[in-house]
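Subject: sequence -> structure tokens, single chain

Hey, anyone have a minute? Need the predicted structure for the following. Not urgent.
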Amino acid sequence: MTTEKKLRFGLMCNSHKLMVWQAECLELLRSSNFTELKLVITPGDWPRAKKRGLLTRITSDPNGLAFKAYDRLASRASRARRIVDMAKELEGVEHRTCQPILKGKFSQYFAAEDVARVRGYDLDFILRFGYGIIRGEILQSARYGVWSYHHDDEEKYRGGPPAFWEIYRNDPKTGAILQRLTDALDSGIILQKGFFPTIRYSWHKNYDQVLFGSTEWPLRVCRDILNGYTGGTDGQASTTKAPLYFRPTNWQTVRAVAKMGAAFAREQIQSLILREQWHVGIVRAPIHAFLAPAGTATVEWLPELPRTRFIADPFAMKKGAEVTILVEDFDLLQRRGRISAVCSADNGRNFSPPVPISGADFDLPDHKSYPYLFEHAGEIYCVPETCERNEIALYRAIQFPRKWERVCTLLRGIAAVDPTVFQHDGHWWMFYSDRDRGSNVKLYLAMASRLDGPWNIHPANPVKTDISSARPGGTPFVHDGALYRPAQDSTHTYGGGLVIHRVVKLTTTQYTEEVVCRLAPERNGRYSCAFHTLAAAGDLSVVDGKRFVVLPQLLPITMRDKFRSLVQRAVPR
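Reply:
Had a minute. Here:
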């Protein structure tokens, strides 16, 4: 990406006081070396509603009082919606007062002279954090238009309050879009779109994750523009037939709060008595057979393990009749994973018990998982997940699969989850998600010309924001000339299913993919609750599955941890 040219942008806001999430979004833009804030546009003394007395508020909208009270409590608890004074940060930036002209009930237009003044700043875009429903020539006053957020899935929800109706309607995903506004209402050009897991027990937490999770989107669109990709800013306007939602009634508010309370209680009880137990199996079909899921064979599960132990994240190597699978070997009592190997000498008919691998960092007691396995230039390599160390490292087999040595560090300072390394079109690539930025929600990409680096972060990161298809879930593979990527779908439960994508564009500046098929676990199988890894092993494939088990012996440990957590929250720092 070239940084010789800086994108000039304007900020449209009601005053110098912004919400925390808005301030964070603005800071991301201003701290980059390729954007500069040139203009702040405010409405000045735009007429505001007079403060009404308590009696007037009660009599004017008695059916909305419950939500008003709840919203006040939620906004106080919210981190994203706290107000910060940005007057000092905006010093030195030119300000313009543009009082809108109200037409009809809601539409706000700008006077011709105000539009002309704004155009005189030669802005590339305007970020809208204020005003109301703006229309007219002001929308064309910047080269790439006026950008505005809508914190909901526009295909399902219009109106508001944002991120509320998903909880009320038991929707597992909460969406958000960044759009370029057009003159047509609810018909913007979508610049970025993402989906987050609905936090069913708390509206303010659900709203916060959507607000904070989308702050980097304007910066990403700017990178695309500077890399020559401007199709997103002048694309086709979206259309929606979604119902229009309004402020909840008293009864709807009470019902929503009851739903949240029930969800919180259910989550706490389940966390006390239930535990995930994963297991590994093989499918006697190559990985590309999953592109037509109706034709894939059933799973042959490995021998059972004690309930206090599970294996997951399988990656395999097949040489003749010998099948070797590396897995995360997790002890539920010690709550730590290590990498183990299971081996078969008869084409996967019988397997040895899991045996820990050794050498280099594999002998250390920190948690390890997702032992991504691949072969290159006659050597066998492994890139495990070691997010506790905030690094991604490469290991080479000395005596496969038991003994390993460390080769080098690929990336530092990243709590990478499920790093997936592969070679394609003369480059090395790595998919991963980030524990500190929503490990199930956002997909990141890194690249290198050599396996041992140096590795560079992709300029379009995060390349995807979607709880249903972001986090890596196995081996990328090529079939009929196309590259495919398995990903996890954690919409309903962690690792609930898999999605296979066809990679449409993979370059050093752009990444796009499209969904080909969605895979669910065997509904009548022993591990029917989830399915989150699909890896290639020649004419075989390896998978994992999840079930929930009751482990009374873990109850004292869980109770202790919950008590410590409550104490830490209660004690001021």
